[in-house]
Design goal:
The complex is a heterodimer of chains A (about 160) and B (about 190).
Chain A (H helix, E strand, L loop, with lengths): L1 H4 L14 H15 L1 E2 L12 E2 L3 E2 L6 E7 L4 H4 L4 E4 L2 E3 L3 H11 L10 E6 L5 H13 L4 E5 L1 E2 L5
Parallel strand pairs in A: 2-9, 4-7, 7-8
Antiparallel strand pairs in A: 4-5, 5-6
Chain B lengths: L13 H15 E2 L4 E6 L18 E6 L5 E3 L2 E3 L1 H12 L11 E6 L4 E6 L2 E6 L5 H27 L9 H10 L4 E3 L9
Parallel strand pairs in B: 3-8, 8-9
Antiparallel strand pairs in B: 3-4, 4-5, 6-7
Helix pairs in contact in B: 2-3, 3-4
Classes of the chains: A alpha/beta (about 160), B alpha/beta (about 190).
C-alpha cells in the first residue's frame, strides 16, 4: 500500500480520459454506417398514410422522390397541396424534366431500374396525384412506390 | 538502456474532434428506410389505340367518390369487406355465370396448362378522393392478392409466399396469381 501512497500529494487524481475518444469514435462509426446523407430539406408536410402490405425499397440510390403535400410555410404559400422536386416547389409540367435529370445522374445500366417514390400527404386530393402519375407514364417512369408507413407506427 | 522519455502526445482534444464529426453525421443523416406499396404504372397509351372490350362479368368495378365512399360493383361498400370481395371474385368458379370466365394459361415452370381467372379489378377514383383513402383501397387490394399468393404457395410448396427462396417458385406463383388491377383515369364522378 505504501507504494501507492508514496506520490499522492494531490487530493484527487485526474480521471483518465484517454479512452474517451475511442468511445466517441465507436458511436461515430455506428452513425456513419447506419445512415445515409439527407439530400433535401422538405418544404411540404408529408404525413404519409398507414398501410399493412408495405415493402422496403431496396436500393436507396435508385430511388427518386416526389413530395406532395401542403406547404410547411402556410403564410407564404397557402394551404393547397404542392409538388416538391429536389429542393423547390414545382408544377406537374416540371416532372418530365425532373425524371430526365434523375436518369442523367445514374449509370446507364441503372437507368431503367429507377423507382419513383411518391411521398404524398394523406390529406392530399387524388387530382394532383393522378396528374403526377399521368406525367410519369408519359416519361415512362413506370416503377412507382406509394410511400406509406407501417400501420400502428407513428412517424 | 537509457530510458529516454518520449514526449507523450496530448490526446485530450481527440475526443473533441471525434465529437465534432459525430455531431456532423448526426445532423446530416436520416435513419428511416423508405417503405411503401410498390406498383407498376401501365405504359403510356397511343392515341389510336382502341379500348379493349372486357366482358362485364370479368370486371370488378371499384369506385371511390370525393367523399371517400366506396362503390363495389354497384353496391355501397366498406373498405373492410373489400379484401374478401376481391378474393371471392378472383377465385375460380368454373360453372358460375356471375363470376369471371376462366382460361387455360401455359406455365413454363410447371410445363403444363393451368386454369386462371380472367377477372380484372377496375379501380376508379374521383379527383377529390383523399390520398389516404386511395392508399387504404390499394392496401386492401394488395392484401387480397398477397393472401391469395400465400394460399397458393402453401398449397403447392407447403411454405408461405414470403418465405419462398427459389426464384422459379416465386415466378410460378406470380404467374398463377396475376395482379390484374386496372386504373382508370380519374374524373369528377361527383359525390352525391
Amino acid at each position: 500500500m505504501s507504494r501507492f501512497k508514496k506520490d499522492s500529494k494531490k487530493e484527487t487524481a485526474a480521471i483518465n480520459t484517454s479512452s474517451l475518444p475511442d468511445i466517441i469514435f465507436m458511436l461515430l462509426f455506428f452513425f456513419m454506417v447506419t445512415t445515409t446523407m439527407r439530400e433535401t430539406s422538405p418544404k411540404v408536410k408529408t404525413k404519409v398514410p398507414e398501410a399493412t402490405e408495405i415493402q422496403k425499397l431496396e436500393k436507396k440510390s435508385l430511388v427518386s422522390y416526389i413530395l406532395i403535400g401542403p406547404p410547411i410555410n402556410k403564410r407564404l404559400y397557402g394551404d393547397n397541396s404542392r409538388i416538391q422536386l429536389d429542393d423547390q416547389f414545382a408544377t406537374v409540367k416540371d416532372i418530365s424534366e425532373f425524371i430526365a435529370r434523375e436518369r442523367q445522374a445514374r449509370n446507364e445500366a441503372d437507368r431503367n431500374k429507377i423507382t419513383t417514390s411518391l411521398k404524398v400527404d394523406q390529406s392530399t386530393k387524388m387530382g394532383i396525384v393522378s396528374d403526377v402519375k399521368q406525367e410519369l407514364r408519359k416519361s415512362s417512369a413506370l416503377k412507382i412506390n406509394y410511400s406509406a408507413r407501417r400501420a400502428g407506427k407513428s412517424n | 538502456m537509457s530510458k529516454r522519455a518520449v514526449p507523450e502526445i496530448n490526446a485530450g482534444s481527440m475526443a473533441d474532434i471525434a465529437f465534432l464529426l459525430l455531431i456532423f453525421f448526426l445532423v446530416t443523416t436520416t435513419m428511416d428506410v423508405d417503405t411503401g406499396i410498390i406498383r407498376k404504372l401501365p405504359p403510356p397509351v397511343e392515341d389510336n389505340q382502341d379500348d379493349i372490350d372486357v366482358k362485364d362479368r370479368n370486371v370488378l368495378k371499384i369506385l371511390v367518390n370525393s367523399h371517400d365512399l366506396l362503390l363495389i360493383d354497384g353496391e355501397r361498400g366498406d373498405v373492410r369487406m373489400l379484401k374478401d370481395k376481391v378474393k371471392d371474385f378472383m377465385a375460380l368458379h368454373p360453372d358460375n355465370e356471375s363470376y369471371p370466365e376462366i382460361k387455360p394459361k401455359f406455365i413454363e415452370e410447371l410445363g403444363k396448362e393451368v386454369m386462371v381467372s380472367k377477372g380484372v379489378i377496375s379501380l376508379k377514383n374521383d379527383r377529390g378522393t383523399s390520398y389516404g383513402m386511395y392508399i387504404q383501397v390499394q392496401n386492401e387490394l394488395a392484401r387480397a392478392f398477397n393472401e391469395m399468393k400465400n394460399d397458393k404457395s402453401l398449397q403447392m410448396y407447403g411454405v408461405k409466399y414470403t418465405q419462398l427462396v427459389d426464384d422459379k417458385k416465386i415466378k410460378t406463383i406470380n404467374k398463377l396469381v396475376p395482379v390484374p388491377i386496372s386504373e382508370a383515369e380519374p374524373e369528377n364522378v361527383g359525390g352525391e
